[in-house]
From TrEMBL:
This is RCK C-terminal domain-containing protein. InterPro entries: RCK_C, RCK_C_sf. It comes from Virgibacillus kapii. Pfam families: TrkA_C. Residues 1-67 form the RCK C-terminal domain.
C-alpha cells in the first residue's frame, strides 16, 4: 500500500517508531527523492510512504493513519 501524508497532523514530525512492528515502511518519497527510512526517520507533509504489512495488522495500521489529530 502507499499512503501520501496530507493533513495527517498527528504524524507530522514524528518518527516511524509509532507504526506497528509488523508494518514495514519500505521507502519514502519526499520532494522527488527516495529515502530508505530508519526508525528515527521523521515524517513530513507530502511524504509518500510505501508500507508492507500483513492483512491481520491492518486495523493497527489504520489507527496510526487516521486523519484525526
Amino acid at each position: 500500500m502507499n499512503i501520501k501524508l496530507v493533513n495527517k497532523i498527528k504524524l507530522m514530525d514524528k518518527s516511524l517508531q509509532q507504526f506497528p512492528p509488523a508494518a514495514n515502511i519500505i521507502i519514502i518519497l519526499r520532494d522527488g527523492e527516495t529515502i530508505s527510512p530508519t526508525a528515527k526517520t521523521k515524517l513530513f507533509q507530502g511524504d509518500v510512504l510505501y508500507i508492507l504489512a500483513p492483512d491481520n495488522n491492518r486495523e493497527d495500521l489504520d489507527l496510526v493513519l487516521r486523519e484525526e489529530n
